[in-house]
Amino acid sequence: MPTLTKRPRYAFPNIARVQLNAFSLYSLEPNVSLSFAKGVTCLAGANGIGKSTFLATVNFGLTGAVPNPRRRLLSTGQYLRDAQEYTADFFDGRISEEDRDVAAITLDFKIGKVEYSIQRALFSPTELLSLSIKDSGRPRELGTSLTPVQRDALYRTHLCDDIGMQSFEQFVFFQHFLLTFDEARHLLFWDEAASTQMLYLCFGGDPSEAAKADELNRKMEQAGSWGRNLQFQASNIGKRISILEASSGSTDAPDGIEQATSIYQERLSALESASASVNEAEQRVAESELRVAQANASVSALRITYSDAFNNLLHNASSPKNHPIVQDALQASACPVCHTASRDVATKVSGKLAKHLCPLCEFPIEETRAISEAARAALAEIDGRLSVARETLNEASAARNRFAEDLKSKQQVLLETRTHINEFEQSNNDLLEAIKVRVAAASGPLQQNLSALQQAREQLIIQRDEAYAERDSFKEQLRLLQVALQGRYAKAEKEFVPTFRRLAEMFLGIDLDVRLTSSQGTAMKLQIEMRGTSRQQQHQLSESQRFFVDIALRMAIAEYASAPSSKAPMFIDTPEGSLDISYEDRAGMMFAEFSLGGHSLLMTANINTSKLLTSMASICGEKMMRLVPMTGWSELSDVQQKATHLFKGAYEEISKALAAGGQVAES
Q1: CA–CA distance, 581 with 587 (Å, rounded to integer)
Q2: What tens digit of pLDDT does each residue of 561-602 get?
Q3: Domain ranges, residue 420
Q4: How far is CA 388 from CA 359, 382, 393, 493, 549, in A?
Q5: Tally of CA atoms within 13 A in the half-sphere of 357 that contains its CB
Q6: Contact at 8 Å (CB) between 26 and 113?
Q7: How far apart are the C-alpha atoms of 291 and 161, rounded to whole Å?
Q8: Same domain, 173 and 286
Q9: Which of 541, 554, 560, 565 is nearest to 591 (CA)?
């Protein structure tokens, strides 16, 4: 049985600065830079402005993955792979085509006295563009000539060592499941798999024990799944034996029929998946073609508008230099008549104009009266719109080309999948036919067939029993870890439970209790009791109670697991829409209490006169809370633009509370 060792304490990354580069979503501030001090940093803005995206991007910078909204924990390693797969498409649409290659995030953060500075490209999650680590101001030796992939691997190793965790996968799990409460509203309280791993990490002996529990649980699930699969196969064979025993004759079951059936089903499933991928890719190509056509039409229409405007001004002393054909030749350095493309084209046209010669016929150009400022401004306005339309066309064309290449790749996969199925059917025609007719019992010795099936069934039962025995062995090892965890948690209750009760009572206004329970043999979770009644299901609490009690639980665990030198921060996408005004005030008090305990809090909130923000501001004051308006980062909708005075009023109200607040923090 594992011994009761010293409790784990982790030093967590605390963000000092975030720098975004070419973040197209924030059209007015694509290179936004934010510095963070101690306490609360609240990003406040309008709906749809990208508040949740900012939190997700900071998480991406730290972990190389955006938290998967459909969090499901089979193991910490499997979750990281799932999150990376989700991340692959996350920034599409948020980052424009022209910014894909340069879009990046730079993070400066501290773990105690260790300072990190990293830069990660948004479309390269397993690479680092730069890495710097300093111990008390002295640079660590990280080696030279590192590739981006090597930098990321080195970052993971150093980060885990400085935090005190066994693996980078453990840190990603902790960051995504515990320290981040985002718009997915995933609830740790009611996720048994995640709760079990979290309890081992925070209340177990050390991170290696949590890793061992994670691995044992994965192996136990695999062995149990394999045992159930073998039992299913044995049952099916038993049914066929019963049919054959009741019949007067049957066909012998060919060798390898079960394996062949499994392979054939897998290939049919792959065909269905490949077909769906091709359909999706074709849809993206069709949509991009439409955008290209629309952009092309816009460019053509503006060219005609420009030409008409120029011709209307021709009798008022227009210069040939402003003619659309000449302008195209100068800007594109290509002849619009013979389509020759060369730098010399623009040079030659400019030379003829300088000599007062027509670029086409080379006849002398007569002196003309100057174009009026109004006419010149009108032409310039049309030319500006034409330039924007050309940029839109170029970006739409680039996206179309990328989608077309992706379609070709998926079509090739579909073709190869169909070829594999055809080859399999041709080479296994007799075997596949036997599957269809085997119960017809047309010929063959019955006893020989029955003996073969009975032998196969007996072998499957033996393998099933071995799989279940292996599962039970893993389960017993997990049970020993569970007993040790229960003992450690009993010691931790004196510190952890009062913290949780204080935070939760601050929100609800009533006493709560929490206790450790086990379920499904080896799963562990914390169960709350409200007014003496246990609440085992989510529906037994209101939406706001579920959200904020879960946040209180996370805060209490973060406090318990934190090393005093670098306490755990939290990222919260505030669910204030679920609260009435009385609970807004209490939620603000709970958030402020957590922050005043030495934890950084990066949160988002809609700009309104919510008591949540004003309550926090009154308690924290300007020294412990910073309000970051996001309304200037992106263009607002028409509705929001008409209500800017309301946003301004809400900002002013919160700012007044900040200026007047802070007495509790200072005391």
Answers
A1: 10
A2: 999 999 999 999 988 666 777 788 888 889 999 999 999 999
A3: 273-429
A4: 27, 10, 9, 63, 50
A5: 11
A6: no
A7: 49
A8: no
A9: 554
